[in-house]
């Protein structure tokens, strides 16, 4: 487990360092395009079909939906809209992920102390691409990492990394698989896994099912026990 913890810590450090580095650049340097979760070059962006459903966050206009067709949306991110500093607390913030359910865009906003290894809090925002109106849905303080952010139908999904303390006073991480109902505005815990025994959780979601691998490593085993968990929405 020491190796896994080291990898997780290194991953968090890299995320924070990247966020700090991005903050120093101008908006024109930060503008990137996200399609299927991977950045593409400006040349590739210009070559994209005009029929793609595009949601852009460039400049003061916020999100705009362009084009027709059934293609997955392409998210444009601009630095002056996606990073900043909270005036009261001095925390750095950044829009770390997008999720889109076919109607509205959901933004994952992460806050951190400059040069810190862990996040201070997260916010989930809802944005209407027709009006550019924005509202706060969820605020999550004291979360190391909020990962696997997804939207499908009337639900949002994510995995929370939370601290727990055992009988000896040792702090360890648990992974909490969460569902948020957009209609009732209530959260639901779908599962919780002990980070000392289980691998990190990767979600796959649609309107009917939520699935993930459960990889359990108990005792001195070198192979573990692996299964697929399926939650019927």
In summary, what is this structure?
The protein has 233 residues and is of the alpha+beta class. The chain contains 4 helices and 17 strands.
Trace the largest sheet across and list its strands: 2-1-5-3-4
The secondary-structure element order is HHEEHEEEHEEEEEEEEEEEE
- What is the mean predicted local confidence, pLDDT? 75
- The computed structural class is alpha+beta
Please tally the helical runs, counting DSSP H or I stretches of 4 or more residues.
Answer: 4
Share of β-strand residues: over 45%
Shape, principal axes of CA atoms = globular
* Number of E strands: 17
Question: What is the terminal separation in angstroms?
Answer: 32 Å
- The whole-angstrom Rg is 19 Å
What does the main sheet amount to?
Answer: 5 strands, mixed
Helix content: 10-25%
Low-confidence segments = 1-38, 49-71
């Amino acid at each position: 487990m020491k190796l896994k913890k080291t990898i997780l810590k290194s991953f968090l450090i890299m995320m924070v360092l990247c966020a700090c580095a991005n903050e120093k650049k101008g908006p024109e340097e930060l503008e990137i395009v996200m399609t299927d979760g991977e950045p593409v070059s400006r040349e590739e962006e210009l070559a994209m079909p005009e029929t793609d459903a595009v949601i852009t966050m460039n400049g003061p206009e916020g999100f705009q939906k362009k084009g027709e067709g059934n293609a997955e949306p392409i998210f444009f991110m601009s630095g002056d809209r996606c990073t900043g500093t909270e005036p009261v607390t001095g925390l750095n913030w950044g829009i770390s992920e997008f999720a889109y359910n076919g109607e509205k865009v959901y933004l994952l906003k992460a806050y951190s102390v400059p040069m810190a290894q862990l996040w201070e809090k997260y916010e989930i925002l809802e944005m209407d691409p027709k009006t550019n109106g924005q509202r706060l849905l969820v605020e999550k303080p004291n979360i190391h990492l909020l990962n696997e952010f997804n939207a499908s139908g009337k639900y949002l999904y994510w995995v929370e990394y939370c601290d727990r303390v055992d009988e000896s006073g040792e702090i360890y991480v648990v992974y909490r698989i969460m569902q948020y109902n957009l209609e009732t505005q209530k959260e639901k815990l779908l599962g919780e896994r002990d980070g000392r025994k289980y691998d990190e959780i990767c979600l796959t979601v649609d309107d009917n099912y939520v699935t993930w691998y459960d990889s359990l490593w108990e005792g001195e085993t070198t192979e573990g026990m692996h299964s697929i968990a399926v939650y019927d929405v």
